[in-house]
Design a protein that fits this description.
Number of helices: 13
Mean pLDDT: 96
CATH architecture of the largest domain: 3-Layer(aba) Sandwich
Enzyme class: transferase
GO molecular function, one term: cysteine synthase activity
Strand content: 15-25%
Pathway: Amino-acid biosynthesis
CATH topology of the largest domain: Rossmann fold
Largest sheet: 6 strands, mixed
Shape: globular
Low-confidence stretches: none
Number of domains: 2
Oligomer: single chain
Number of strands: 10
Strand order of the largest sheet: 1-2-10-7-8-9
Pfam families: PALP
InterPro entries: Cys_Synth/Cystath_Beta-Synth, P-phosphate_BS, TrpB-like_PALP, TrpB-like_PALP_sf
Length: about 325
């Protein structure tokens, strides 16, 4: 296959059998290697879906002047900026200043107009999402609105879900992943459930997010906090999750997520970020609850290289009272 450009190269990522997780549970646990997308994360899918819909609606025209604005923890911004570059558009990306230095530096490197803002709760007008909306309105630009833009989930329903179904030859018992915007879980879930209603869909959630409580009780209630970036919502259910066919939820601690990150790197040669570690921990929990002999698919969202200054920095880990892997200590 020869891809025509960035857009055409997004997707069709492999499933990787996670040996240790599979051996530990007696199940087959597979990770969708989304770090192999051209922009380095699962958010490349959302980017091409959102911008593709903007083109269909006449809001953007390829290789004609245009600007897209988005508020993001980093990865969606990277995907949007690269996808915009490939079509001749500009990008303005609003990012909380607490995000990893690697993501912010990379956004600047690829030509995005990066606007850093202090971290604020969603109820505050200074929150990065609200700030990005105001900037888009002032510029007359396209606001990507990844949290509520249904083109996000639709792209996963079009691509991620069918890919998993075909790669497993329809033999998949459960799918689990964390939610930032909810697009990956909702879209993939709809595609899998359409093919087999018995596929179990489980939302993975970090502490500090209220989505676990929402699935379990119908009410958004957050407990604790987490160092993971780009996943979990403390006070609001993203629009992409509206009507998503979710069967259950599991809550994963930072310690569990980091343990899986470090183990995947040291024992299986897979360098992934915190959200992927959380997803693998959730897949193990789901596998144990279902019993041996099942096949569970999860998402390896991005590479560990985007978190060198945090998750793989022993000083930072010690400051957060988190475990330091032996090779870093």
């Amino acid at each position: 296959m020869v891809a025509t450009d960035f857009w055409d190269a997004v997707g069709n990522t492999p499933l990787i059998r996670l040996r240790r997780a599979s051996e530990e549970t007696g199940c087959e646990i597979l990770g969708k290697a989304e770090f192999m997308n051209p922009g380095g994360s699962v958010k490349d899918r959302a980017a091409v879906g959102i911008l593709g819909e903007a083109v269909k609606r006449g809001l953007l025209t390829p290789f004609q002047p245009g600007t897209v604005v988005e508020g993001t923890a980093g990865n969606t911004g990277i995907g949007l900026a690269l996808a915009a570059n490939a079509r001749g558009w500009k990008s303005v990306i609003v990012v909380p200043e607490t995000q990893s230095r690697e993501k912010i530096d990379f956004l600047r490197m690829i030509g995005a107009d990066v606007r850093l803002v202090p971290p604020k709760p969603l109820s505050d007008p200074g929150h990065y999402v609200h700030t990005s909306r105001r900037i888009a309105e002032e510029m007359g630009a396209v606001w990507a609105n990844q949290f509520d833009n249904q083109a996000n989930a639709a792209e996963h329903e079009r691509s991620s879900g069918p890919e998993i179904w075909e790669q497993t030859e329809g033999k998949v018992d459960a799918f689990t992943c964390a939610c930032g915007t909810g697009g990956t879980l909702a879209g993939t879930a709809r595609a899998l459930k359409a093919r087999n209603p018995g596929v179990r869909i489980v939302l993975a959630d970090p502490h500090g997010s209220g989505l676990f409580s929402w699935v379990k009780t119908g009410k958004v209630a957050a407990e604790g906090n987490s160092v993971t970036e780009g996943i979990g919502q403390a006070s609001k259910v993203p629009g992409n999750l509206t009507g998503a066919p979710i069967d259950d939820a599991v809550r994963i601690s930072d310690e569990e997520a980091l343990y899986q990150c470090f183990r995947l790197l040291a024992e299986e040669g897979l360098s992934v970020g915190g959200s992927a570690g959380l997803n693998v921990a959730a897949a193990i929990a789901v596998a144990k609850s279902m019993g041996p002999g099942h096949r569970i698919v999860t998402v390896l969202c991005d590479s560990g290289a985007r978190y060198q200054s945090k998750l793989f920095n022993p000083e930072w880990l010690r400051e957060k009272n988190l475990p330091v892997p032996a090779w870093l200590a």
